[in-house]
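Quick one:
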Amino acid sequence: MTDENKTPEDVDVHVGQVIRRRRRQLGFLQSVLADALDVTPQQIQKYETAQSRITASALFEIARVMKVPVAYFFAEIDQLEFQAFNDEIEANVSAFLKSSDGQELAIVFPQIEDAAVRKQFLGLARAMANASQAGKLVRT
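Output:
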């Protein structure tokens, strides 16, 4: 987040939470970490709450002071993104299977034996979805 009116990015929130958790594990007060980094305790609080984005050099120094690799702050992010992706798929599949068209498609699609035809069908479905989202799909 670069402006006080903007919502912080999820990654900034996550990194701030990891900094806070590691700082507490080490028994550091915000002032101790601030002194080590030559910033104010208020700046540490802004990093931890994602009110301020952390520069690469500041994150490198935080990692050095906390005796962890920079990657430590991002270790869980891949898993969080993967879970969010899975949650989105699950919601879409659930909504799809609740519709009669979705149920019918779920029955007939696997009956298309030719893999190339299934691939073409998926390509057509993607193109129609993209056109629909762009408002270019003409309904008759």
